[in-house]
Amino acid sequence: MKRRKFVKLCASAVASVTASPELLARDNQQYHRYARVALVDPYSSEPVRASSLEVGETYLFHYPFVSTPCFLIDLGKPVTSRSNLETRDGDRYRWQGGAGSNYSVVAFSAICAHKLSHPAPSVSFINYQHGEVRFRNSFDEIEQRSGVIYCCSENSVYDPAHGGLVLGGPAPQPLAAIELEYDAEQDSFYATATIGGEMFARYFSHFHDRLVLQHARTDIDRALTDTTKLMRLSEYTNNQVGCQA
Fold this sequence. Notes:
about 240 residues; alpha+beta; Rieske Iron-sulfur Protein; four-stranded mixed beta sheet; 4 helices; globular
């Protein structure tokens, strides 16, 4: 291949990745493709409109399986990709950033990366805090900031504006992110994949009996294929536990 043609080919490849940063994640083993599932209203079964989301509110849906909870949050500001996230095993991956017309909507697995704490109808020890909270950061220093996902079980804190990055506590890796596809014409969202370190196998094994009772079904690991209900976390759980350092 001639040098000029080779340089042109390389430039084209770089341009493609720049235009679609999610391509980096899709080439990585930390990108896990699942069915394209629409986020719908739990009462009407109509697609949830992005314009109806309240900034700072914590919404919950299940994906990619019928019993695996996820958070959806409109951070109220555009958020961009971060390329240096890393799993507990040292695998690096790229998060795709926010979705929606303002790139402000993000979604993450609501299963804490430390001891698998997650929202349940009776109580949720892991929650999004839109206002300022105090916590101990990775240097064991008291830090105060807003817009974090805080797990009060063991005080792990994550940054949803940077791909679920661990800000403090014992969590060994970021929260797994949920890739959102935005349909501008319908102003709606689809969940399409997870990005990062999944913990579903441990989750199913550790909480099997409780999940069977909670969801009134034995196939708790059945993959969703069509729609998933999106609701406020306050509608799903009776008690959201708050915490401060």
